[in-house]
Amino acid sequence: MHARDLVAEFPTVTADTPAVEAARLLAEQRLPGLIVVDGGGRPLSVLPGTQVLRLAVPRYCQDDPALARVVDEGHADRFVRALGGRTVRECLPDQPRELPITDPGATALEIAALMARTRSPLVAVVEADGRLLGAVTLQDLLGRALEA
Q1: Taking Cα atoms as reference points, which of 97, 95, 125, 96 lies closest to residue 110?
Q2: pTM for the whole thing?
Q3: 3 state DSSP class of 25
Q4: What is the distance between the alpha carbons of residues 87 and 122, in angstroms, rounded to a whole number?
Q5: 19-23, 36-40, 46-50, 59-63: which has the minimum mean pLDDT?
Q6: Domains recognised in the chain with CATH numbers
């Protein structure tokens, strides 16, 4: 089983996409993350949904979970509003790291190793010319691997 056998179309965003739009896409389509592409449609990064949460959740609540407990329920339920006018660019890590990107010939084990190494719930599959084919998600990879 290779990436070409597992790849599926996958939504993309740009670094300038509003973060709230990215959050909406994640929620409505039940996605583990998004592929961030440049103007030419080439992958720049993979954005796990947890990175969007990191931008929405107040830093003091991340640093001390007990403080999250003292916020009244009405305000706590609206934490996503903190995304306001922010963009996907602000969700991306400051220090670039290995991108979870592979070619269509990668084996299931290569994809799994890449996911584990990069801690990414999805891997972008890219042709040699840089064209994005889609993505392999953790759910699809495990599902197919368990069937084999």
Answers
A1: 125
A2: 0.82
A3: helix
A4: 21
A5: 59-63
A6: 3-147 (3.10.580.10)
